[in-house]
Amino acid sequence: MSSQTMYGEPNVEENLPEVLMRVVSELHDVAYLIERIEPQLLDIGGDQIMQSADAMKVLQGIDLAVQKTRGLAEFIDTITATIPSEWVVDVATALSLVKLTEMQKSLGAGMRHGHSQPLTKAAGDFDFF
Hints:
Elements: E1 13-15, H1 16-35, H2 37-45, H3 53-80, E2 88-90, H4 91-107
Antiparallel strand pairs: 1-2
Helix pairs in contact: 1-3
């Protein structure tokens, strides 16, 4: 009899480096999709969009999101090279933990713990060192 997660899904162990490389691929796809937003906003808003401080913050936020996404992908790619191919991960359990974390966040009245970007900051806001 195979074991199951709390959601009734069967436990499926997969090679950890392969799973991480799929995550890297997805992050590169996300960066590409985010990057495509900026030219579309410029097409919709025209040249006058560049005169708006709020629009500039949005465009800077888009650029920052692309940079962070690519940075995460590169970091995961780099550490994946050091992980032995024999290491496996139970993907169903890992995804269940992600679902639980998301539920905790949504029930936490907007409080974010362990993240670098507070909810009170606007897209494009940044702090100097």
